[in-house]
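Troubleshooting log. The previous structure file for this entry was overwritten by mistake, so regenerating from the original sequence record. Sequence copied from the archived sheet and checked twice against the printout by T.R.
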Amino acid sequence: MTPFSEVTIDCEQGSDEWRMARLGLATASRFADVMATLKSGGEAATRRNYRTELVVERLTYKPTESFLSRPMQIGIEREPLARGEYEALMGCAVQEVGFVLHPEFECGASPDGLIGLNGGIELKCPTVGVHFDYLKLPAGECPSEYRWQVQGAMWLTGRLWWDFVSYCPEFPPELQLIRRRVLRDESAIDKLEAGVKAFMQEVRADEAFARGYVEPK
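Regenerated output below.
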C-alpha cells in the first residue's frame, strides 16, 4: 500500500466545482464497479461501462449527467437531518468535507463526514423496505454493495473506522437510525489499490486510443 497523504478540495458536494474535481477520476461511490468481476474471469459490464464513462468525461471535459429518482432525491434532502441525528446519538461533531484526492492515483472520495482523527461516516436515507433489511445487518458489517465504498473512503482519508448509517424517519424513534461500525481492512485496501491502479491504466489507454483515432481506409 502506498504511503498516505490526502489532498482535500474544499467544495460543496453536488456543486459544479465538485463535479469538475471528480471529472475522469474513479470515485469511491463507484469502486464496486471498478472491482466488479465475472465468474468466467471476463470484464463485468458495470466495470466496462464505468471505464467508458470516465474516458468520455476526459475527452469532452464534461461530467456525466446522473439521473435522480424521487427516492434518491428524498435521500439527499434527508441527509442533513440524518447527520444531526447521528451527532445527537453519538455525542460527536461530524466534519463535512468536499472531495478527497489520493496523492498518487487518479481517484477520490466524497465522504459524508469525518469524525475526530480516526473515523468517518457513510449516510444512507433509503426506502422503508431497504431500511428494514439493514436492521438485520450483523455487527461490524455494512451492506455488501457498499463494502468497497466504505473501505475506499478509509483508504483515501487514512481513517481506522467508518460508521455505516441508515436513517428512515417513517420508523418508530428507536428504529429510525441504524449504525454499524466497519473497521479498516488492510488486505481489502491493498486489493482495492491494485484494482484502482489497473482500472485507471485502462482508462488512460482507452483515452489515448480515442485521441489518436484514425478512420480505417
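The chain has one domain: 7-211. Archived copy saved in two places this time.
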